[in-house]
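Q: What would this chain look like folded?
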Amino acid sequence: MSINHESHQYKNLLKPFIIIFLFLIIAGAVKAFVLLGRDFLPPAARTAGDASSIFFLTMAVVFFIRWLIVDAPFTFLKQLTVTPLLKSIISMALYFIAIVYLLHKIAGIDIKPLLTTSAVLTGIIVLSLQETIRNLFTGIWINAEKLVVVGDWVRIANKEGIVLAVTWRTTRLKTREGDIIYIPNRMLAEGIVENYTHPSNLHAVEIDIGASYDAPPNKVTETLLDLASRLDCILKNPEPEVWILNYGDHSISYRLRAWIDDYGMLPKIKTDLNSGIWYAFRRNNIEIPFPIRSIHRLESKKKAHSAEDITGYIKNMDFLKALPDDAINDAAQSAKIMVYGNGEILFRQGGKGNSCFFIKKGSVDIFISEEGKEKKLSTLGSGEFFGEMSLLTGEPRTATAIANGDSEFIVIDHHGFKDIILNQPNIAEKLADILAKRTMELEETKKAISEEEKTAVERMQSKRLLKRISAFFGLK
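A: My prediction, written as structure tokens:
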């Protein structure tokens, strides 16, 4: 790709020589024609021929000088924002000199009187073009100081956008709405310029949210920081932080501050954070209260799901079929209903975990990381479960789980399961058998062994898992 770009760059660099060569051929041909036809050509034709020869020769010289001091050097300096402006100024100066020379050489105009009256002429030009000249020199200053550079996200004169170009007269922005705005350069010198990209592309995103007085501040803070840590677009350094702003009439006001390095993604990142806060607060039973003006409140709150409802969902799960009814009821008592939004990360591969998820509604994409690349392993739907190994053994997560659409989960953690195992130790052995069988079913090597070998491996896996379960739950 870079090789093609460089070859294209060199081709553009050599294009002016084609024009120079044509100008020289035309100038030489016209001059030769005039010399050969001097005896029979009329004087007017010879004069026109000489003028044409001088014109084309002059243009060839101008193009060559322009290539020598403009095209060739600046082709390798394209990364400098000042390059287009300097090219324009030098080119204009060369063309002006060429025009003055041709007027003097061809038309016979004496430029000395023009030079003697240049002070008056210059004064008139400066007065009539003072706004343009101001923009010109401001443009030079902007480029030299790198106040804004192509690709920067900026706010100028209350207009926000990405810089497309900085010319000798205007700075061109493209807004988020796709509109192109031309801002006179003088406004950059006279007004306030906010640059969100240079000299640092770090930018703080702040989200203000109110939480109920019933929610402990430490819990709210932990929930917000956990949400920020789950989003890939949020930087880990500097670390996100949460401030308590004030105690209002109806809520405690918090501010989540996180850092990003792509200002162009700001609206989407704010959307992801605001959406994530709703789901995170819902999962952690943190209320976002209505204003105090809403004085009519229901005395009783509708409970989303009772323990009986949860029992009905989980008793048919293959993973818990080994449990007696009373144990399933105990598990339902400690279980929670958690809601995740589309794209939210339930947990990451390698992270700590001690809970198992049963999918009540929606679906989950399971990814594994191999050699630094994310690979989608499967999509689990309603009625399926995952995370059972971390629940029973406390081992780190072996995959990453991401909600596919708005989804509801029944979550059972280690603390809610501990009493069940301690009260009925024989359940641990049954669960170890189920885990061993499930592990074997997930291994690709099962196709290469016989049923007897498979049974033997399952028994070994079961014994090994039973030891880990017993150690994790403190069984003797």
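Residues 147-195 form a domain with the SH3 type barrels. fold (CATH 2.30.30.60).
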